[in-house]
Amino acid sequence: MTAKKGTTLQDFVRQRGVIQELNPELARIAIQGYEDEITPAAKADESFYRQFRCPRCKSEMSKEFLGGARGVGVTWVDGSLTPRALLRCNSCKLLLNPHTAMIVEMGIRDSLQKCSE
Ligand SMILES: [Zn+2]
To answer: Which residues surround ligand 1, an ion (CB under 5 A)?
Structure first.
């Protein structure tokens, strides 16, 4: 079955009953009384990732998760509330696992000369 022309994916999914949206009031009641553990964990993660610079060219790095364009990395670890990311250099594209300090990919060699000029 195909979606009607002009129908968004969300409309299609809603019409087919694949996903049933939870009433926001019921959702609020369902989580009432539970402590939010994810927000503090996510803030701690952001501080952790922000402290890293590219070990090769010292540029800023961006998070990259498992299943991204290259399908590499570590996403979930037992005992962790948040997904783990790798860090990709914004300049030379070096890929670092900040949790193990292991360089996963060396990135673009030519950009090393640009960075160090
Ligand atoms: Zn770099």
So the answer is: 54, 56-57, 59, 89, 91-92, 94
| Cα-to-centroid distance, 45 and ligand 1 (Å) | 21
* Residue 25, token pair as written in the block: 């009031």
pTM over 0.85: no
**Distance, CA of 55 to CA of 89 (rounded, Å):** 9
Burial 27-62 (b: 16+ CB within 10 A, else e): eeeeeeeeeeeeeeeeeebeeebeeeebebbeeebe
Q: What spacing in Å lies between the alpha carbon of 82 and ligand 1's midpoint?
A: 25
Residues of the chain short of pLDDT 50, as ranges, are 117
CA of 68 to the centre of ligand 1 (A): 19
Q: pLDDT per residue over 57-89, tens digit each?
A: 999 999 988 765 555 656 777 888 888 889 999
Reported in sequence order, the residue ranges of the chain that DSSP labels E, i.e. its strands, are: 61-64, 86-89, 95-97, 102-105
